[in-house]
């Protein structure tokens, strides 16, 4: 069974629906289109993905369990009120502990090992704009 995740309004966790990741609402009903790229990723998925947010891009290698953030590489028209912040270890491969939530139209949430002292970091991004496959680096 395929699943489709959307954040629950009162929680930072994702709600699971029994639909293909490329499912779209068409005419009020869910339809899966295997030709379209997925609209979400799950922690147990595989492969290398470029997740574009409103202000940055993230290269996520689910096999190697790493994330590389490229600040400012998001959509060029993020809109007023969006600033691009430089974060610790930008452009570096950071260990991914858990992909908590990643769905187009919602902020992505990642549990990362950014610090050297083993303190876990929870990162929440601006809204995800696109999820596309990429080559493994």
Question: Would you give an account of this structure?
Answer:
- The protein is mainly β.
- It has a domain at 39-133.
- Helix content is 0%, strand content 47%.
- It has strands at 4-7, 14-17, 24-26, 29-31, 40-41, 48-53, 56-61, 66-71, 93-103, 107-112, 121-133.
- Strands 6-7-8-9-10-11 form a 6-stranded antiparallel β-barrel. Strands 1-2 form a two-stranded antiparallel sheet. Strands 3-4 form a two-stranded antiparallel sheet.
- A hairpin with a 2-residue loop joins β6 and β7.
- It is globular, with a radius of gyration of 15 Å.
- The model is unreliable at 1-22 (pLDDT under 50).
Let me know the largest β-sheet: 6 strands, antiparallel, barrel
Give the neighbour order of strands across the main sheet: 6-7-8-9-10-11
Q: Quick check: average pLDDT?
A: 76
Shape call: globular
Question: Helicity, in percent?
Answer: under 10%
The SSE order reads EEEEEEEEEEE
**Terminal residue distance:** 30 Å
| Cα-atom radius of gyration | 15 Å
The proportion of strand residues reads: over 45%
Number of helices: 0
Salient structural properties:
137 residues, mainly beta, 6-stranded antiparallel β-barrel, two-stranded antiparallel ribbon, 11 strands, 47% strand, disordered N terminus
Helix/strand layout:
Blueprint lengths: L3 E4 L6 E4 L6 E3 L2 E3 L8 E2 L6 E6 L2 E6 L4 E6 L21 E11 L3 E6 L8 E13 L4
Antiparallel strand pairs: 1-2, 3-4, 5-9, 6-7, 6-11, 7-8, 8-9, 9-10, 10-11
Write a brief caption for the model.
This protein is mostly beta strands.
